[in-house]
Model the fold of this input.
Amino acid sequence: MHKGVMTVTTTTTLQDVTRFFIQLGITGAPVVDDSGKPVGVISMSDLTAHAAGLDKPKEGSFLRDLWDDTGHHALHDLTFSEDVTAGHVMTEFLIRVDADAEVRELLELMKTARLHRVFVTREDVLVGIVTTLDLVMLLDRLLEERATAKRS
Done:
């Protein structure tokens, strides 16, 4: 799990969200309330849909697009009214797992929901994120340990 997940608050303006995404080279972030409780996700899909005057992406579709880099350059061209915030356009659907969850539970969730990222919470406070890359790195380490054990 990665700790220190980059978040935005419900009151962050869309223009600031856009700058945040560009600055960090990301295409989505969890949205938290003032107490740090995750309440949703905002993604490039949400931003572009709002800018185009379209409805939000279908619930769940943002999960596949959340970390898709293919259109990241399009963020540079988006402008928003300063009174529209992340809380207005975020997707309230947030899949998360408790910090004490078993790895097997996490894997099943990621497989079933076809997720590349899962937010980790403890008592409703966001404490980290697990990505498919984290799992690949874990698998690589385990395979290396197995190979080392066989050579010994």
